[in-house]
Amino acid sequence: MQFQQLAYFVAVADARHFTRAAEAVHVSQPSLSQQIRALEKELGAALFSRARGNIALTDAGEALLPLARRILADADTARHEVLELAQLRRGRVRLGATPSLATGLLPDVLRAFHDRHPGIRLIVEEGGSHDLVRHLARGALDLALVVLPLPTPSPALTTVELFQEDLVVVSSAADEAPASPLRIADLEGRPMVMFRHGYDLRDLTLAACRAAGFEPYFTVEGGEMDAVLGFVRAGLGIGVVPQMVAARAGHDLRVTPLARPGLRRTVALAHRSDVAPPRAARVLQDVLLTAATRPLVQTRP
User: Fold this and answer.
1) E strand or H helix at 65, and its extent?
2) Cβ–Cβ contacts within 10 Å for residue 13, how many?
3) Cα 160 from Cα 268, distance rounded (Å)
4) Considering only CA atoms, which of 43, 45, 47, 14 is closest in space to residue 33?
5) Which DSSP helix (H) or strand (E) runs through 136?
6) Which of 19, 57, 70, 222 gives 196 a disulfide partner, CB atoms 3.0 to 4.6 angstroms apart?
7) Is 169 exposed, middle or buried (0-12, 13-18, 19+ CB in 10 A)?
């Protein structure tokens, strides 16, 4: 008994017509009929009655049908399981992340994933949430770490909140220590180093300053995360960065918390709603969700 014979049998049982069944499984009608006859011979019983052109299941056919469906379903499941296991031995995951998350969160997470699945190639693309959402929508990424709320919410994306994180003020350790904690209003008039347009952190900081009634003063603007931290180290101004980034920034930067309510950001994992991520991407998603429950970052209750 062959899987192909069972598939042909189920097709005829569903169509109750040999020609239409042959079309459904993309074989010629004589080939299908030959395989059905071979199956009947092997089982020692007729599976169909063919009275005046009407096709009906015999008692033997009725008994075989649910078994055949289950065998074919189990075989299909087995194929998918083996394929997914193979995908965890080789393949790729395309992960998007904002630069601060690529710097602060991903090193430990990707190391844990790589230790478990060294054959998976990890492709990381940095960008602002707006760009990452666009890349997800066109299928260029499997997963993306983004900051909520999204600049352009999309029903085509599914987002899962991972954690909330405080933003802090960093300054050069060589400069005079600012008051601690700092209020948003205390940032007025202070030289500040600012990220380029499109950075989620830029938008958060600008919105907070404007809500406090002032426009921030930029000595340098337009940099990426590493450049901003370098400018701050050089004494060009203060910066507002995520706490996880500040924790890795080194002893040449001073970290000052913001007074309540301060500034917080919500980090989420996003993927397309209409397409399930590949198995390897789903495993990485589980690693990220697990990491979000651990004290990778210090957040306020």
Assistant:
1) helix 59-87
2) 20
3) 5
4) 47
5) helix 129-137
6) 222
7) buried
